[in-house]
Each structure stands twice: as structure tokens, then as C-alpha cells.
Design goal:
- Strands 4-3-2-5-1-6 form a six-stranded parallel sheet, with helices on both faces.
- It is elongated.
- It is an alpha/beta fold and about 500 residues long.
- The chain has four domains: about 5-120, Cobalt-precorrin-4 Transmethylase, domain 1, CATH 3.40.1010; about 125-250, Methyltransferase, Cobalt-precorrin-4 Transmethylase, Domain 2 (2-Layer Sandwich); about 255-285 and about 415-505, Rossmann fold, CATH 3.40.50.10090; about 290-415, Rossmann fold (3-Layer(aba) Sandwich), CATH 3.40.50.
- Helix content is about 35%, strand content about 20%.
- The relative contact order is 0.08.
- The structure holds S-adenosyl-L-homocysteine.
- The site of S-adenosyl-L-homocysteine (SAH) has 24 residues, from strand 5, helix 4, strand 9 and strand 11.
């Protein structure tokens, strides 16, 4: 009986995280260790609590484990230590992906493994760029070809056979190989007028498609300054592209949106940006942590039924406070007849997982409006506000003025992150983001603090700022940050709507 773990070779798909398979998702959930390659979208790492390591075949890549031998060794050793390992590879694990070499090494070492197919780049690039490789009017075959990175192997490619291939040709290869590829095809007899195109960064918001007759493709691509990775397509199907292109028409197509929410709360904003065709960039500035100790919270949980109103001003407040109630063995019955107010719909929805419904949600989702709505109900009443360790103090002043007997309780902490990750900061400094969405005044403050001078110069210029509310806008302005769009509904959905609107008028 061995106590070995298991390795899953999982296709990550081409980039759009939604293209991961359900089986791949289950593997990520179950993993203890994830080794991902440079083509797998790091956004997928949100779906695992495993330790994660980036691999690179280029040994010098900072912080990455490199070399196929070393990767194989790492997979085998981790499995032998009893771990569930996911080897996450861009596209499909076997299509030009060396997954089969990893499988062979695992088999030789007697390690149990499974392979989970992924959407390969060619297929995804075709569909996201409006190319039907096997359209029945044009092609009854399609060939996936790699113009090898390893030039010694290139000799083995029979370009004459490829040029004669009666169907669509799809090439996986670096852009720097394009010139040589086109020359080889033309020399082998392919007509210079054959329709062709390149799709770069397929399924990402930065997807670009350049179409030109084969003879002019290399020049057209040079003029467009594309970014890797890219797929080249040669065949008549390119002529039908415009009719069935769709991805490039979505409202935030081509836009990178910095999401400043703490990672644990970013899921719905990320999904929405992806739906709109944009690329979410995780840019958390704060971290949500439990209170330093639970004594005060636990004491309050024991006397919950003394209160007439329980007020929540964030999802975090609900999750932390009621989560603690659950963890120490209680449930909703401990709330007795207390009424519940929630600042907005998201906070209201988060009550549902605890079997509760808010009695009051104000029409505008901010403290002033919440105070207005509560005012008629709180005179002489005992009110408990479950809050963060910092934030605005509008609510207590207003409620006390209205005659409430108010107690406040810190149920979670809002802690500034010490720094942006190096990758995100570099992107900011290069002005590669189009928008940063500011979800609160304290996030505006953290952003100002975490930016280097170079990054700061991009804010309000190349990188525009969108604000969730007038209060956030005002704070940003005090910090010298220009706000280009402001939400009319003070929620993350409203914030993204404001960005879509601002993009539409441009
Ligand atoms: N296993 C991967 C391919 C790895 S080879 C798969 O099945 O897709 C690497 C090549 O894949 C790149 O040089 C490029 O040609 C292609 N590629 C990968 N992701 C891509 C993307 N998002 N857009 C365009 N081409 C991509």
C-alpha cells in the first residue's frame, strides 16, 4: 500500500478563466500544490488554497522553477510526499504542451495521475476572433502546426506538404518566427493572396486580430506591435471573420480594470469584468482580518437578544459577526426578535447564508441614507452596530442624535497591505491598466500610499480612476487623485456600470 498522492495534469484553457473545465476546477479545489506555467492565467489561482509555484522553461525567470527535468522531479517528489498536485498548463496539457512527457515521467515513477483536457489556444482563438476553421464552404480539415521554438527540429517540418494541406492551417509559435514561416510557405507554393490572420492574447481583454493576405501578413503584424502569445491562421475562413466576430464587441473589450477589493471579496467584480469583455487585475489595498481576539465579540453574542436593532454596514461585518456566532455553536435563534438593518443589497444578501433577511435597506447605499431610514425607529431603542476597526463615523452621531442607545462593536479589522505585488506595481508604472475602481475612501488612501512615484504619475493620466460614491470621490480629490467616473448606485456593480458608461462616450 503506498501513501503516494496523485498528480492531475490540468489544461487551464487559453486565458479567459471561464474556459477552465469543471473537472479542472474540482482539481484546483482539492490541490495541496499547484505548479502553473507562464501561459495559465494566474486569476485561476483564486480557486485554490494550495501552495502555488510558477514554472518556466527559461531557467532565469525570477522566482520560477525551470527546466522540464526539475518540473518532473518536483511533481514526483510532491506526490511521493502524499500531496495532491495540480500541474496547471495553458491551453490543453498535451497540445504542444509537453504534458505527455510529464505523464511519462510520472508513470515511470509509479505515481498515479489523471489528465484533464483544456481548451487549446487555437480553438479558443478561432472562436473568440470569429474564425470557423472547418466552415463547410471552405475547409474540411484543419491542421495544428508548431513552427518549432527549437530550430534544429524545424528541418523536420515539410513545408511543401503543409502548403498542399487541403484545409485551414493553424500555427502555434512565437511572433518572431512569423517572417520565416511566411517565407517557407510561399517558397513551398502557397499563394501570397491566401487569406491569413494573427490572433494575439486570445480570449484576454488585450486580444488583437490582424488580418492580411499571407504575402503581407508579416508587414501588417510589424506595424501593429502585437504582444505574445499569438496564433497564426492561414485559410479561407479568415474572410468570414467580420460576420461572426463577437468578443471584440463587448463593452469593456481591450480594457484592464484594477479591482481594489480584498481578494476574498473580489469574485463578483471579477466575474462581471470578464462578462463585459474586460480583464480584471487584482489590486487589493487592504486585507480583511478577524479581530485580534474574540472576547468582546463573544461577550456581545451572549447578550444579543437585549438589542432592538442590529446594524450592518458591510458584507464583512455580517460574515465576521454571524460567522463567529455559528463557530461558537450558536445560530440565528440567538438573535431573538432583534431587527436587522443592512446598508445595501450586497450586505443584505450576505445575511441570507445565515438564514436571515434584513428588515431595512436604505434607498441610497451609504451611511447618511441608512441613518435617515433608521431615525424614526430608534428613539429610546437599543442599537448595536457591528463595524470595522476603522471607517466613517457618521452613523453613531446621527443615531445618538435620534435618541438611540447605541453600542458599537468591532467585528473585523481593515488592514492596509504593506505593498502591491511586484507584478502589479510594474504594470501600473507602465500604465498598462485602463481603470482602477475605488471601492471606498480608505481604498483611495491606500492606493495613494502604495503607488511609487512612477505609478502615481500614471493615475488620472493613462490609468483612469472610477469611484464608488461621492464620499470616495471627495477623499480621492483631497489626495490629489482625479476621478474620471463616479457610480450612481453606490455598489461595485454601480461602479463597473460607471466605467462602461465612461467608455461608451469616448
Ligand atoms: N498547450 C497550449 C500550447 C502551448 S505552446 C495550448 O494547448 O494552447 C505555446 C503557444 O501557444 C504560444 O506560442 C502561442 O502560439 C499559443 N498560445 C497559447 N495561449 C495563447 C493565447 N491566449 N493566444 C494566442 N496564442 C496562444
Amino acid at each position: 500500500m503506498t501513501s503516494n498522492g496523485k498528480v492531475y495534469l490540468v489544461g487551464a484553457g487559453p486565458g479567459d478563466p471561464g474556459l477552465l473545465t469543471m473537472k479542472g476546477l474540482r482539481c484546483l479545489h482539492a490541490a495541496d500544490l499547484v505548479l502553473y506555467d507562464g501561459l495559465a492565467n494566474p486569476l485561476l489561482l483564486r480557486f485554490t488554497s494550495a501552495e502555488t509555484e510558477r514554472t518556466s522553461r527559461i531557467k532565469s525567470q525570477a522566482g520560477a522553477i525551470g527546466g522540464q527535468e526539475e518540473i518532473n522531479r518536483r511533481l514526483i517528489e510532491a506526490a511521493q510526499a502524499g500531496k495532491t498536485v495540480v500541474r496547471l498548463k495553458g491551453g490543453d496539457p498535451y497540445i504542444f504542451g509537453r504534458g505527455s512527457e510529464e505523464a511519462a515521467a510520472l508513470a515511470a515513477a509509479g505515481i498515479d495521475f489523471e489528465v484533464v483536457p483544456g481548451v487549446t489556444a487555437a480553438v479558443a482563438a478561432g472562436e473568440y476572433a470569429g474564425l470557423s476553421f472547418t466552415h463547410r464552404d471552405y475547409a474540411s480539415a484543419v491542421a495544428f502546426v508548431t513552427a518549432h521554438e527549437d530550430p534544429t527540429k524545424d528541418a523536420s517540418l515539410d513545408y511543401e506538404a503543409i502548403a498542399r494541406f487541403p484545409g485551414t492551417l493553424v500555427f502555434y509559435m512565437g511572433l518572431q518566427r512569423l517572417d520565416a514561416l511566411v517565407k517557407s510557405l510561399l517558397r513551398a507554393g502557397k499563394s501570397a493572396s491566401t487569406p491569413a490572420c494573427i490572433v494575439s492574447c486570445a480570449t484576454y481583454a488585450g486580444q488583437q486580430t490582424i488580418a492580411a493576405p499571407l504575402g503581407q501578413l508579416a508587414d501588417a503584424v510589424r506595424a501593429a506591435a502585437l504582444h505574445p502569445p499569438s496564433i497564426s491562421v492561414v485559410g479561407e475562413c479568415v474572410t468570414r471573420r467580420e460576420a461572426i466576430a463577437w468578443f471584440e464587441k463587448r463593452p469593456l473589450f481591450g480594457r484592464r480594470i484594477g479591482i481594489t477589493r480584498p481578494v476574498a471579496q473580489a469574485a463578483s467584480a471579477i466575474e462581471r469584468v470578464l462578462e463585459l469583455g474586460g480583464e480584471p487585475i487584482l489590486l487589493p489595498t487592504i486585507e480583511i482580518l478577524p479581530p485580534k481576539d474574540w472576547r468582546a465579540v463573544d461577550a456581545m453574542l451572549a447578550r444579543l437578544c437585549e438589542f432592538d436593532w442590529l446594524v450592518f454596514t458591510s458584507v464583512n461585518g455580517v460574515e465576521s459577526f454571524l460567522g463567529r456566532l455559528w463557530d461558537i455553536g450558536g445560530d440565528a435563534r440567538k438573535l431573538g426578535t432583534v431587527q436587522i438593518a443592512a446598508i445595501g443589497p450586497a450586505t443584505g444578501r450576505s445575511l441570507r447564508q445565515f438564514g436571515l433577511r434584513p428588515d431595512l435597506v436604505p434607498p441610497a447605499y451609504r451611511a447618511e441614507s441608512l441613518a435617515d431610514e433608521l431615525r424614526p425607529h430608534v428613539s429610546g431603542r437599543r442599537v448595536l452596530w457591528a463595524r470595522a476597526d476603522r471607517g466613517r463615523d457618521v452613523l453613531p452621531a446621527e443615531l445618538i442624535k435620534a435618541g438611540a442607545s447605541l453600542e458599537t462593536l468591532v467585528v473585523y479589522r481593515n488592514v492596509d497591505l504593506a505593498a502591491f505585488s511586484k507584478i502589479e506595481l510594474d504594470r501600473l508604472e507602465r500604465g498598462e491598466l485602463d481603470w482602477i475602481a475605488l471601492g471606498s475612501p480608505s481604498i483611495a488612501e491606500s492606493l495613494a500610499k502604495l503607488c511609487s512615484d512612477a505609478a502615481r504619475r500614471q493615475l488620472g493620466q493613462r490609468v483612469r480612476l472610477a469611484s464608488i460614491s461621492p464620499v470616495t470621490t471627495a477623499r480621492a480629490k483631497e489626495l490629489g487623485l482625479a476621478v474620471a467616473a463616479q457610480a450612481t448606485e453606490y455598489t461595485w456593480d454601480g461602479l463597473l456600470d460607471a466605467i462602461v458608461e465612461a467608455e461608451a462616450v469616448k
